[in-house]
Amino acid sequence: MAAAAAAAALAAAEPPPAMPQAAGAGGPAARRDFYWLRSFVAGGIAGCCAKTTVAPLDRVKVLLQAHNHHYKHLGVFSALRAVPQKEGYLGLYKGNGAMMIRIFPYGAIQFMAFEHYKTLITTKLGISGHVHRLMAGSMAGMTAVICTYPLDMVRVRLAFQVKGEHTYKGIIHAFTTIYAKEGGFLGFYRGLMPTILGMAPYAGVSFFTFGTLKSVGLSHAPTLLGRPSSDNPNVLVLKTHINLICGGVAGAIAQTISYPFDVTRRRMQLGTVLPEFEKCLCHYLTILFQYHEGDFEVCLWTPWNSKRIISWFIS
């Protein structure tokens, strides 16, 4: 869940360091603005490079999560070999253009929302420290996800297409088709709820795991894993490569725990283009609430032959 990862990373980030004012230079506010602008541009470029690097794996993940009938019988590495054979090497990068377009507005909204929420939480709720950065980062991530979700929807639809079976000709055509045939703007927000729900466990597990690894590492092997902070030599921080390893482990554990939400989101995003038997889980079973002799009867039905599977009563 890239969105949750970005929110967690932003929430964990320390505020920009104070910079001494040089003669003739702008004030602290101007330097702070320059810091965020530089971070935004650098982060956007780094994000584009990172997403392009892992785009083949992301395309395969979408194909396997939604059980594309051409590749559902394959594993990850088999699919990585099969996609170029069937669609050429550019087939591994389907949908990556929409992702590149999404990165910069996502980052801009997240940065602005993070500062706003951080100030709001501090002034209105009186919460500070790591907790208020976690809350502000999570809320900023949710805001950025909601604002840029239509681009993620289009990206997934394009990535799921297979050569010779194209429903959408490109990003603009996908936008216009979804808007015209799937209920207007609401059609772009299929699967938003599991996305939002998945961000909470991801951020919580990621922060907890990283904090635990950091505390254990610095307490048991401070000279091997730690180094003096550049701001305060009396404070130990993790070395860069150890910090990267701990972050990777924390992200992998958090991603594994929240992965069911990601699968649910993909199935819901692709619900209208999947075959009838492969649609989102909510279409496998229809839950009917029936009032029967003073009790609510909950019945589960199959959509293809209206056969009742199970029913029970709630008093």
From TrEMBL:
Instruction: Please state where this protein is localized.
Output: Mitochondrion inner membrane
UniProt superkingdom: Eukaryota
Bilayer disposition of the protein: Multi-pass membrane protein
Report the Pfam families cross-referenced here: Mito_carr
Q: Answer whether the UniProt record assigns the keyword Membrane to this protein.
A: yes
InterPro entries with a match to the protein in the record: GDC-like (IPR002167), MCP (IPR002067), MCP_dom_sf (IPR023395), MCP_transmembrane (IPR018108)
Q: Which UniProt keywords apply?
A: Membrane, Mitochondrion, Mitochondrion inner membrane, Repeat, Transmembrane, Transport
Q: Where are the Solcar repeats?
A: 34-120, 128-216
The main location class comes to mitochondrion
Q: Which family does it belong to?
A: Belongs to the mitochondrial carrier (TC 2.A.29) family.
User: By what name is this protein known?
Assistant: Solute carrier family 25 member 16 isoform X2
Query: Which source organism does the UniProt entry give?
Result: Vicugna pacos
Output the lineage of the source organism.
Eukaryota, Metazoa, Chordata, Craniata, Vertebrata
Q: Which gene encodes it?
A: SLC25A16
